[in-house]
Amino acid sequence: MGIQLTAIHYVYLAFIVFIMALLIRRRDTTMICVAGIFVLGLLATETLGGSVSGVFNSFVYATKELMGTIMIISIIVAMSRVLMITGINETMVSPLTRFLRTPAMAYWGIGIIMLVTSLFFWPSPAVALVGAVLLPVALRVGLPALGAAMAMNLFGHGIALSGDYIIQGAPKLTADAAGLPVAGVMEASVPLVAVMGIVTTAAAFWIMRRDQKKGTWRDGLVSAGRTSGVFGEPSSPPLHPAILHPRMKKSLAILIPLLFLADVAAMFLLHLQGGDATALIGGTAVLILIFVTLLAHRNQGLEQITSYLIDGFVFGFKVFGPVIPIAAFFYLGDSAFTELFGTVLPEASHGIVNDLGVALANSVPLNGIVGAVTLTVTGAITGLDGSGFSGISLAGSVAHLFAAAIGSGADTLTALGQIAAIWVGGGTLIPWALIPAAAICGVSPFELARRNLKPVLIGLAVTTVVAMFLV
């Protein structure tokens, strides 16, 4: 498994350390990411023109990769605006207020609902469903928007995605790489996922309540979210008053959730996952937007549909504007580097990030304690590209290596690497990976990542210690 590290690997690692330090200090990292892309391009192409072009091409690559998420967020925002202006949204969520009466109930209630939904349909489409319906309720009972985003993010992209017990995409990848049956890895992951989930979500809630009492809580609200018409006043007045009869408003408040429930049923029956599930929700949201707008605005409905869509897309691209340069840099850690700059890495390379993970695994002694720590660190490093899934095959391979030397613990080590990779890269720490929850809640993804950092690190530390006893 020996990988020859080159100057490109070391430069990439140096920029990662610099970027993470800036993120922790709440400083903007756009310029550093662009500089990193430029330097890597210069090393790869050895020409100034190739390096300069690489900066632009990396932006295009990142935008293409993120476009599905940008679209679903923009469309949900556009739909939510017409529902708010017509009052349908308030009518729709009012019955839920009896169940979520306090900030604590809202935090844990949103989290559990998000967990269950994400287990069946993965977190991104679940965020759109849960956030659109429950966020207004949470805000009304006093849970900050950032607190709601944390709950959706940690329970969905954290607990549900790292276990992935229903769809089983994650355990299949890691189990195949480790040469183990999927059922064995899933069984071994149960106590680890439970410890990680309980520790992280409890720590996040405790820190939030502590900071609120001390007056040091920052909600990280995004101005775009407050002017797009979803979480505040609309950015521009409607072209025509949106008036609905109370009976019609009540009927639509029942019909719209039923349409989304039909989407859920269709996902289950047709086995729709990931992008397909997101597309179904997005298409439904567009049709709801058109239907409600025509009903509410009548003769001005055609023009107002376009106005709502414009507001949604303006919001989506405002939120993603600072994210694209960062995503462009981290995507270079995977297959994007070869696609943009050609085959300049060693022949045995599986991408910059995976090479670094293999090098780490090969540079430490092989025993149970070191094995658990190494799998956690390796998984976390491979998660830095923001997908969570690109490096879990590596985690399985490294776990197989350690288990062969130790003589036991293959299932546990494989599950541990999977959990670390997905918690870091699947959407709880890397800013562009947790965009869906941040955008739906109208908060800064960077502030959400900063708030998640300490609870996730605590959870990873405790989970690693537990794994040491299970190996």
UniProtKB/TrEMBL annotation:
Keywords: Membrane, Transmembrane, Transmembrane helix. The chain crosses the membrane at residues 6-24, 31-60, 66-84, 104-121, 127-143, 188-208, 252-271, 277-296, 308-332, 364-384, 391-410, 416-441, 453-470. The keyword Nucleotide-binding does not apply. Coiled coil: none annotated. It comes from the Bacteria. This is Transporter. The lineage of its organism: Bacteria, Bacillati, Bacillota, Bacilli, Bacillales.
